């Protein structure tokens, strides 16, 4: 019984961390006047809709004053294994730097 509780805690912690990663991605997009759904769709065209992404956007927890630098965003995405999204974000960073 105790092991199940530990497993549930680990799963819950991962979900919380994943939600934070999504919140940071959404805020990074907002900081750079980019559409998070469009970037996500570009990275994962086979997925219909990301419910967690939509929930974070709808929640709008007021991260407005938080600036996420480009390297941090790339590191966070890599930490969660979002390699396809890393490539899309890196491409957008390159475009932003050329402006």
Helix and strand content put the structural class at: mainly alpha
Helix content: over 70%
- Kindly state the number of beta strands: 0
Radius of gyration: 15 Å
Overall structural domain count: 1
Sheet with the most strands? none
First CA to last CA: what distance?
57 Å
Spans of at least 5 consecutive residues whose pLDDT stays below 50 are none
Strand content: under 5%
Question: Mean pLDDT, rounded to whole units?
Answer: 90
Number of helices: 5
Write the layout of secondary structure elements.
Blueprint: H1 2-31, H2 36-43, H3 51-59, H4 70-79, H5 83-98
Helix pairs in contact: 1-3, 1-4, 2-5, 4-5
Kindly list the characteristics that best describe this protein:
mainly alpha
How is this structure best described in words?
The protein has 99 residues and is mainly alpha-helical. It has one domain (2-98). Helices cover 74% and strands 0% of the residues. It has helices at 2-31, 36-43, 51-59, 70-79, 83-98. Helix 1 (2-31) runs antiparallel to helix 4, helix 2 packs across helix 5 (83-98) and helix 4 (70-79) runs antiparallel to helix 5. The N and C termini lie far apart (57 Å). The mean pLDDT is 90.
